[in-house]
C-alpha cells in the first residue's frame, strides 16, 4: 500500500513538473521534480526532466549533473546522453556534445531529433575550429594595418626618415602582437565557457556549511532518557 501511494505521489509530482515546464515555470518544475526524486531516487526520467529545467534556468552545472545521474541509472537509455549533449551544446562544448549525441544515436538510431542535434553540433564544431585558426590571423592583419599606419605617420607627418628594415620589423612586430592578443582572447573565451559547467561558488559554500553542520552533529553527545534525567537531577542539586 505504501509503495502504491508513493508511486502515485511520484506520478503526480512528475505531472506537476511537466505542466510547469509547458507553462515555462522552470524553477517551479525543478522543485516538483526534486520532490519526486525524494520518493524515487533511482528514476532516470526524473533526473532527465530536472536536467531540462535546470538548463532552461541556465543552471548548467546542476543540469549536467542530473544528465550524468540519469545515464548512471540507465546507461542503455538514449535520453540521458541526449540531455548531457544539450547542456554541452548550450555551454559551447561542441566536441563533448557531439560525443554525447553519438552515444544517444547508438541507442536510438532512428531518432530524427537526436540526428538533427548531432548534425548541428558537428557543423558548429567545424565552424569553431575554423575560427580557432582564422581569428589569430585576423589579429595579425589588424596589426599589419596598425603597424603600416604607424610607420607612414612617422614618415609623412613627422618628416623622420627611418631605415626600411626597421620599418618592416616594426610592422611585423605589431602584426605578431595583434596575432598574440587575438589568440589570447580566443583562449580566454573558451576557458570561460568551460567554467559554465563548474559548480558555482555559492553551491560550494552551501555544501561546506552542510558538511560542517554534520560534523558538529556528530561531535554533539547524545544521551539516553535515563542519562538525561541524571544530568537534570545533578543540575538541580
SSE inventory with pairings:
Layout: H1 2-22, H2 26-39, H3 44-56, H4 60-73, H5 78-90, H6 94-107, H7 112-156, H8 164-194, H9 201-219, H10 225-236
Helix pairs in contact: 1-2, 2-3, 3-4, 3-5, 4-5, 5-6, 6-7, 7-8
Region (Disordered): 209-237
Subcellular location: Cytoplasm
TPR repeats: 10-43, 78-111
Task: List the keywords.
disordered C terminus; mainly alpha; disordered N terminus; elongated; Serine Threonine Protein Phosphatase 5, Tetratricopeptide repeat; single chain; 237 residues; 2 domains; 10 helices
Describe this structure in words.
This protein starts with a helix and ends with a helix. By secondary structure, it is mainly alpha-helical. Helix 3 (44-56) runs antiparallel to helix 4. The chain is built from 10 helices and no strands. It is found in: Cytoplasm. The chain crosses the membrane at residues 135-152, 164-182. Keywords: Cytoplasm, Membrane, Repeat, TPR repeat, Transmembrane, Transmembrane helix. TPR repeats lie at residues 10-43, 78-111.
Amino acid at each position: 500500500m505504501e509503495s502504491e501511494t508513493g508511486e502515485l505521489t511520484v506520478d503526480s509530482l512528475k505531472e506537476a513538473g511537466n505542466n510547469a515546464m509547458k507553462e515555462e515555470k522552470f524553477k517551479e518544475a525543478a522543485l516538483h521534480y526534486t520532490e519526486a526524486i525524494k520518493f524515487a531516487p533511482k528514476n532516470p526520467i526524473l533526473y532527465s526532466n530536472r536536467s531540462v529545467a535546470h538548463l532552461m534556468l541556465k543552471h548548467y552545472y546542476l543540469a549536467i549533473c542530473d544528465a550524468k545521474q540519469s545515464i548512471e541509472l540507465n546507461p542503455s537509455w538514449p535520453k540521458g546522453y541526449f540531455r548531457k549533449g544539450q547542456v554541452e551544446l548550450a555551454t559551447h562544448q561542441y566536441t563533448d556534445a557531439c560525443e554525447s549525441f553519438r552515444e544517444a544515436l547508438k541507442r536510438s538510431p532512428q531518432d530524427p531529433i537526436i540526428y538533427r542535434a548531432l548534425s548541428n553540433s558537428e557543423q558548429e564544431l567545424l565552424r569553431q575550429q575554423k575560427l580557432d585558426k582564422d581569428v589569430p590571423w585576423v589579429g595579425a592583419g589588424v596589426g599589419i594595418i596598425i603597424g603600416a599606419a604607424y610607420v607612414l605617420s612617422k614618415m609623412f607627418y613627422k618628416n623622420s626618415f627611418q631605415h626600411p628594415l626597421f620599418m618592416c620589423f616594426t610592422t611585423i612586430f605589431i602584426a605578431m602582437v595583434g596575432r598574440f592578443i587575438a589568440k589570447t582572447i580566443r583562449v580566454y573565451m573558451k576557458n570561460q565557457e568551460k567554467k559554465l559547467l563548474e559548480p558555482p561558488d555559492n553551491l560550494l559554500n552551501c555544501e561546506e556549511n552542510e558538511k560542517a553542520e554534520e560534523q558538529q552533529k556528530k561531535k554533539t553527545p547524545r544521551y539516553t532518557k535515563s542519562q538525561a534525567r541524571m544530568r537534570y537531577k545533578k543540575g538541580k542539586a
